[in-house]
Task: inverse folding
């Protein structure tokens, strides 16, 4: 099995059995992201515990890339700090805009490395980023709440 096939397998595994899927309560922010060019949609909720991403729950429809990438994203950010989640977003975002030329770091991106091949297909990049953009927007929402611990941290930067 070559690397491309292995990556394909990882994506299909996540698509068949999405990790952390379903919408859960309580939540601190909820966003909807759509990718009209492909018909992908995701509703995503983020629950924070101080500076920790306690839970990310979601419900979505769309292509295997969009669904699998959201599943992989939840594995990478649940239980991590908000700062850490934003770093993963930035790293995944950079990889998806590398046109497949970036050497992905398996230690930080784990199953996310499987999407490096997808980055070669411009029209699929938005599919892979859908759940991640929803996460970023949800984190921005929680940071914008007055008095929130994350709000102070963001302003310091
Ligand atoms: Zn798609």
Result:
């Amino acid at each position: 099995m070559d690397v491309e096939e292995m990556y394909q397998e990882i994506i299909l595994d996540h698509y068949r059995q999405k990790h952390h899927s379903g919408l859960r309560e309580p939540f601190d922010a909820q966003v909807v992201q759509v990718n009209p060019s492909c018909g992908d949609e995701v509703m995503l909720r983020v629950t924070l515990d101080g500076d920790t991403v306690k839970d990310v729950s979601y419900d979505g429809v769309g292509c295997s890339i969009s669904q699998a990438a959201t599943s992989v994203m939840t594995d990478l950010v649940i239980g991590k700090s908000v700062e850490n989640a934003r770093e993963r977003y930035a790293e995944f975002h950079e990889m998806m805009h590398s046109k497949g030329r970036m050497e992905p770091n398996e230690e930080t991106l784990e199953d996310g490395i499987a999407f490096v091949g997808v980055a070669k297909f411009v029209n699929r990049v938005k599919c892979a980023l859908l759940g991640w953009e929803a996460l970023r927007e949800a984190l921005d929402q929680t940071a914008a709440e007055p008095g929130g611990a994350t709000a102070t941290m963001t302003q310091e930067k």
Q: What stands out?
A: The pocket of zinc ion is lined by residues 35, 38, 40, 62-63, 65-66, 127 (CB under 6 Å). The chain has one domain: 3-154.
